[in-house]
Every structure is written in C-alpha cells, then in structure tokens.
User: Fold this.
Amino acid sequence: MSNKLFGTDGIRGTANQDLTADIALKVGMAAGLHFTRGDHRHRVVIGKDTRLSGYMIEPALTAGFVAAGMDPILVGPMPTPAVAMLTKSLRADLGVMISASHNPYQDNGIKLFDPDGHKLSDDVQREIELRIEGNMTPDLAPPAELGRALRLDDALGRYIEFAKQTFPRGETLEGLKVVIDCANGAAYKAAPTVLWELGAEVVPVGVSPDGMNINEGCGSTHPAFLCEQVVSHGADIGIALDGDADRVLIADETGDLIDGDQIMAAIATSWRAEGRLIGGGVVATVMTNLGMELYLESQGIELIRTKVGDRYVVEAMRERACNLGGEQSGHIVMSDFGTTGDGLVAALQILALLKKTGGSTKSVCRPFEPLPQVLKNVRYNGVDPLESGAVKSAIQEAQAQLDGAGRLLIRKSGTEPLVRVMAEGEDEALVLSVVDGLVDEIEKAVAAA
Assistant:
C-alpha cells in the first residue's frame, strides 16, 4: 500500500480543501490510538505556525487526541524543532506541528514526531493511514477516560533557553549586527529574542504575522528581501528562516546568498578541526552540489547522499552515527542539539564560527566553489508527465549528453504538484541546454494531458 495522506514531510494540502477539519480529527484519533501504550496518562505536544488555518486544524486535532484518550499540550506558535524538542523534554508520547513549512498561507500541514522527537517512518505512517481508513470508533476512549487539553504557558521560554545553550558557553554575539528574517512565521518571537539576549545588534524583519503573510515576499523562499535588508542596514550577516523555522539561508555582508550546502560545509570543516564531527562524514541529499562533495573529499570528509527530505537525512545520520547532515534548501540537522532541522540553531553555529575566526561572513561561509547547477520546476495537474514516452526518451538523451560531464536529477516534489529538473556540471552552457530541453518536453506533455 502506498501512502495516500503522507508525503515527504508529513501531510500537506490546501486548507479546508485537501486538508480539512475532518481529516485533522481523524489523524488525531488514528495517531493517538497508535501511540497509546500502557496505562499511564498519554500526552501529545501540539504546536503550529502563524497560518490562519491553524485555528481550524488545531482544535480538530485536539478533539481527535482527546477522543483517543490523550492529553494534548498546546504550545501555540512555535518552530518545528521546538515541538520536536518539547516532545522529548516533556516525555510526551507524540508531537505534532501544524505547518506547511515554506508553502504559502493557503496551504497547511501536519508533521508528527515520535516520543524521541524524530519524524515518523514510512511504516508507522502507513499504519496510521490504515486506521483512518478503518472504523476507529470501537477503539476510542470510554467517557471516563477521555483526554484533557491544557496550554503550556512557558513553552516559548523553554525553547529560547534551549537555543541559547547551543551557543558556545561564555561567548556572546557582541559586535555583530544581524538581520533576522522570520518569514512572518513560527519563529517571529523566538529568533530575535535569542539573538538579542546573546548580545547581537538585531534588525528583525518578517516579524508581523497576520495569518496570511507567512512566507510572502520574505523568508528563505524569497531571500532577495533578506539580501536587500543586509545591505541597507550595513549588517554583518543576514539570516532567513522559513515559515516553521526548520530551514535557514544566510546572506553575507555584501548581500550575496549562501545556501545550505555552503552552511553544511563550513560547519563540517570547523567541527572536524575541533574533533567534533563524528561518523566520518556529512549526510546530504541527491540535490547537494557536486562541488561540495569534491571539497569535503579534499578535507577527508565523506559525503553520504540520500533521497530528498530531511526525514531521510536523519535516518541515514542515525544509521551511520553521523552528527551533521542537511539539505541544500537549508534544512541543517545537528544531532548533538536536536532531532530535526533547526534554522536558528544552525545559524548560531555559523555565528559562533564568525566570532571564533574573526572573519567576514563571505570569507567564512563560502568554503568551496559550487559547480554550475540549474534547477527548474514544471507544474502539472493530474496526469504524471514523467510517464510520457516522449519525456522518457528526452531524459535518456539528456543523460547521454551529460555522461561523464555532469549529473542529472529529475523528480516529483513530495509536497507540491511539481516536477523538478536539475542538472549540474563544469560546462554551464551544456547544463542549461539540457535542463531547458527537458523542461520544454515536460511542458508539452502537461499541455497534452
């Protein structure tokens, strides 16, 4: 059975259309029943980002968990990594984040964490879906054993103190001017507070959520705004988070953007020099630039690739006992500190590196020269264009063109109806030609469907 609800990062869809209150209710009941084991009071931590639809999904999930006999602990707007941390810290049986991450406000999603704060495996997700498809009524809690919801008032403070503890003890951010773009999302309170309390001069932007402006023209999905702000404020560094703050991009002092590959490489070489990098390598996805792989190899560090999705990165990190991994998009996972991507904590590692070296962001955060890489998306509806015979032939031809001279990757997004076409190699003109040719062929298949 293939997953019907769950994608590469939980459940996601257009609010009140694909993702309704009814679905959220059933997910709460099914997940609650799955994680109810033993005779103790079972607890579930529920956080959300700043989307308007969170007001619909949160109570629906809460009702589902209460019906399953779980006690929901509501923490309000909170970064995804904070929910993962609190799930483990509070000894909860389950954690839930209501967010569609970097998507626009019309979308929302449900991410689930096990008692250790890790995202659920494919097998567990399938078991939850099977419960949803069946009749759950006989398994629900009797009236006397229904759950009780409560709100945790100090949740934000707990995460702020946790994040500060990941910064080197005794060090401060004094002397650094930092622009922090919170994407009008979940970290709009936490991130500026952490940076200010550590001593930075903080320029907060994207910190006025209204329920519909999350990720709108700001944050890590629209980094040009951050780059402009860094230059106009004369800042030393810019930090852009996404809607649920599990990913980060950096802007240097000149306004040039630094992606997740460069961030991972900078942290990896620093940690290796300090004897902190364990597992002998860094875990990244098939999207990571070949230039990073060659650079890490020159530093004696192995690059272990996985399929796209920070959940798969974490699984490989656990299998290989590595403590650093991530994605080019800015999901940076550091198992010394947490179980999932944490944009703020990753940014603090970069800031610690700036303070330690005394170097500029441009000099510290660009350890390698990336090979030319082109990524283009094609939106489709309904029929999978990759099943087209003409598209399959075009892909074979493109692979032949790049054979020995580069790398081609074509995949469907796990969160949106998009086909992503990526190629990289030393010959930028060849890479661009290959991608454009494939995009044209896929667009033809979409139009003909």
Notes: The chain has a mean pLDDT of 95. The chain has four domains: 6-153, 158-256, 258-364, 373-448. Residues 179 and 238 are 5 Å apart (CA to CA).
